[in-house]
Structures are given as structure tokens and as C-alpha cells.
Amino acid sequence: MAFAIHKPLQVACIALYWAGTVAFLVYLGWKVYGGSLAPFDGLLIIFPPICAVAVLCRSPSPAPKPASRPRVWHLFQVAGWIVLFGLLLASLIGGHRYDVGVYQLLLLLVIFCLLEQRRKRLGRSLSLSRFFLLLFTVYLLVAIGFCAVVHPATVRQGAALVRGQGYTAVGYGGHISDTSFLSSTFLDFTPMTGREQALGLYFYAAQKDGQPYGVLVSVLGNRVVGYTQNQAIIAVFAG
After folding, report:
1. What is d(CA 122, CA 113) in angstroms, rounded to the nearest whole number?
2. Global pTM value
3. Sequence-distant (≥ 6) Cβ neighbours of residue 65 within 8 angstroms
4. Contacts from 25-33 at CB under 8 Å and sequence distance 24+?
5. Residue 65 to residue 20: CA distance in whole angstroms
6. CA separation for the pair 222, 156 (Å, rounded)
7. Alpha-carbon distance 49 to 176, whole Å?
8. What CA–CA distance (Å, rounded) separates 157 from 32?
9. Contact indicator for 153, 161 with CB cutoff of 8 Å
10. Are 64 and 3 in contact (CB under 8 A)?
């Protein structure tokens, strides 16, 4: 199979843009937000090989127009879109309002449907390279927009808040997503709202008056919700 000269360049551009997308999302989710916000899933891992195969194997000549499909198939297709939309919306309503991945998939589905309607109306589809670059851009913009709207506390902001409470030698210990057991582990644990529980807590190892402390900061509440001087607990959470 003979490949056009520009196709390897398209694949290279897609691969570089994909690598930049993954690097930025990993940095945003795990470095800036300490694992509380992780807008990164398996779809970004399988995109590059799919992109490469699809772009390289696509025929340079226009494909023949397929025969019209039966109306039953179109109804089945529409029903499939409705089911997917319904599942994503139900996921948001059912307690995943702060799961950025759901918003990413929902917007990708909307864009895909719009592009499909464009293809039917104009008789041509978006080039594969531009299509995949569009998907990566959507992933980036949704993650950035989510942070801009929700305003979760960053690891640095949480550390600054702990220092403002009079603690010194503040070090980030990790993110805690399951907060159900903390009321029994941290004696001074303040009850969290349902909104705060969605993104969990930051744990910081710190000192006050020469004594070691473990301090909890709410990611969405941006407030200290508990602390402890139990050395065993501090060692477990500080890792």
C-alpha cells in the first residue's frame, strides 16, 4: 500500500499533540490538584494507535457513496445516541457532578453528533487528522473550564491555608477520596457537606509548637476540616 508523503507528517503531528495533551492533563490532575482532579482516562491512551492506523490506511481517493440505509437502521442509531446521552446525564444527576470525565465524554458525544449531521447535510466529513486533534482540544478545554468554574483548591493553596493556621514545615502527604472513616480517625474532624465530599481532602504533615500534626483540607471547601497528633495515623497518611 502506497502512502501519501503528508500522511506520516499528519500522524507525527497527532502524536505530538496527543503527548502534549496527556502531559498537561497529568500535570493538572496530579501535580496542581494532587490527584483530586484527574481528567485522564483510557481513551487518551488508545487514541494514538487508532489515529495512526486510520490516517495511514485511509484511501486518498474519495470513497464511493454508500447505498442508503434502511430507515430502521437510522432509528436504531438515533436510539443509541439517546441512550448514551441519557446515561451520561443520569451519571451527572446521580452524584457525579464533579467528575470532569463525564463532561468530557458528554461534550465529545455532542460534537460527534453535530459532525455527523454536517456530513449528512454537506456530503463530506471532517478529515481524520483534524477530527482527532479536535477531540484532544475538547479534553483540554473541558478540564480547564471545569477548574475555572468549580474553583477546587490546589495543593499550594491548601498548604498556604495550613500555614495560615499557624503550622510550619508543611508537606503534602496525599489525597483522600474516601472520607467516610475520618470522623473516627481524626477526633477533631468537622463534618463535610455533600459537595465537599465529591473531591475529597488533602492531607498535610505539619508542625505546631514543635509537635507533629496531620491536617486535613477540603478541596472544594478550601478549609481545614480536621487535624490529629496521633503518630500512627500521621505515618499512614504521610506514607
Report:
1. 14
2. 0.80
3. 123
4. 25/139, 25/140, 25/143, 28/143, 28/144, 28/147, 29/143, 31/155, 32/154, 32/155, 33/147, 33/152, 33/154, 33/155, 33/219
5. 36
6. 11
7. 34
8. 10
9. yes
10. no
- Report in angstroms the alpha-carbon separations of 99 from 51, 95, 183: 26, 9, 24
pLDDT(178) > 90: no
Residue 121's pLDDT is what?
74
Q: Helices in the chain by DSSP H: which ranges?
A: 6-26, 42-57, 71-93, 100-122, 128-150, 155-164, 182-185, 194-197, 231-238
205: enclosing H helix or E strand: strand 201-208
Amino acid at 184: S
Residue at 73: amino acid letter: W
β-bridge mates for residue 174, sequence order: 203
- Tens-place pLDDT, residues 126-174: 677 777 788 888 888 988 999 999 999 999 999 999 999 999 999 999 9
pLDDT at 19: 85
Note the pLDDT tens digit of each residue in 5-55: 466 777 788 788 888 888 888 899 889 999 888 655 555 666 656 665 665
The per-residue DSSP string of 137-150 comes to: HHHHHHHHHHHHHH
**φ and ψ of 203, to 5 deg:** -110, 130
Distance CA 186, CA 33 (A): 23
φ, ψ at 60 (rounded to 5°): -70, -25
- In the chain, the amino acid numbered 128 is L
DSSP state for residue 34 in the 8-state scheme: T
